[in-house]
Design goal:
The structure is a single chain. Helices cover 17% and strands 39% of the residues. By secondary structure, the protein is α+β, with helices and mostly antiparallel strands. It folds into two domains: 2-57, Orthogonal Bundle (Arc Repressor Mutant, subunit A); 67-215, Chorismate lyase-like (Chorismate lyase), CATH 3.40.1410.10.
């Protein structure tokens, strides 16, 4: 899980990861188990320990940066290990409001509804569309941008986010801790691949008392 999240760009190159005790507690494993995982990732060249300072994500030459390194959700106190629960997957047309900025070549796609969590706390509700020409395989998982790159042959190179406030939809699960209709931070996104094709359209409702949208560049 730690390796997957590093590859997905949830931790930036050069960023210090949480302490072993904090990570172990958030993952529900023993510190010894967590220490072995960190040691393995260090051997793979994904992490580096700095004496007296902590453990950091190692920059790798030639790696294509993931857009999530710059635009992501964080707990109000900062950071948080991301996970996601798939709520539903079906075929559905794109809402007109989401394609007003640039018309994708596709009008219907796979619609993925997810509950996002940070350190095990539900923080956001997502509704994501991708072109139906892509096959969703068993490898389809919570690290979607990694799935795009490794299984579908493209990566997200550019995004446009529009941030406002919107009411939480009626299909929100109780675990999010908000009633349908509650005011949430709202993000509409169009995402372009390395071929400059719109490959993903999404909308996200963020629990404003639990998490925030964070953008950093570079």
């Amino acid at each position: 899980m730690l390796g997957r999240e590093i590859l997905a760009g949830h931790w930036r190159a050069g960023e210090r990861i949480p302490t072993e005790s904090v990570l172990a507690a958030s993952l529900g494993v023993a510190v010894g188990t967590l220490r072995k995982a960190v040691a393995e990732l260090e051997q793979r060249g994904m992490l580096e320990r700095r004496q007296g300072s902590g453990t950091y994500v190692r920059a790798r030459a030639g790696r294509v940066k993931n857009i999530y390194e710059f635009f992501r959700l964080e707990l109000l106190q900062g950071g948080g290990l991301p996970t996601a629960q798939i709520l539903a997957v079906d075929a559905a047309p794109l809402p007109k409001a989401l394609i007003a900025h640039e018309q994708p070549s596709w009008r219907s796609g796979w619609r993925i509804r997810r509950l996002r969590a940070l350190n095990g706390t539900p923080v956001a509700l997502e509704e994501i569309w991708i072109d139906q020409r892509h096959a969703l395989t068993p490898a389809f998982s919570e690290a979607l941008y990694q799935f795009y790159k490794e299984q579908l042959g493209f990566w997200i190179a550019r995004v446009q986010d529009q941030i406002s406030v919107d009411a939480l939809p009626a299909w929100a699960p109780a675990e999010l801790g908000l009633q349908a209709g509650a005011a949430c931070t709202y993000i509409e996104r169009q995402a372009w691949s390395n071929s400059q094709v719109v490959e993903e359209v999404s909308r996200t409702w963020v629990h404003p008392q639990r998490a925030r949208y964070c953008a950093r560049w570079p």
